[in-house]
Amino acid sequence: MNSGKKIMLSGVKPTGRPHIGNYFGAMRQFVELQNTFSGYVFVADLHAITSLQNKEELKQNIIDVVIDYLAIGLDPKKITFFKQSDIAAHTELAWIFNCLTTMPYLMRAHAFKDAEAKNKEVNVGLFDYPILMAADILLYSPDVVPVGQDQKQHVEIARDTAEKFNRVYGETFKLPKEYIVENVKVVPGTDGQKMSKSYKNTIPLFATDEEIKKAVMSIPTDSKGIDEPKDPATDKIFALHALFASPEELAALSERYTKGGADGIGYKESKEILIKNISAFIKPLREKRERIALDQESILEILQEGGRRAREVAEAKMNEVREKVGVKLY
Question: Taking the model in full, what pTM does it have?
Answer without folding.
Answer: 0.93
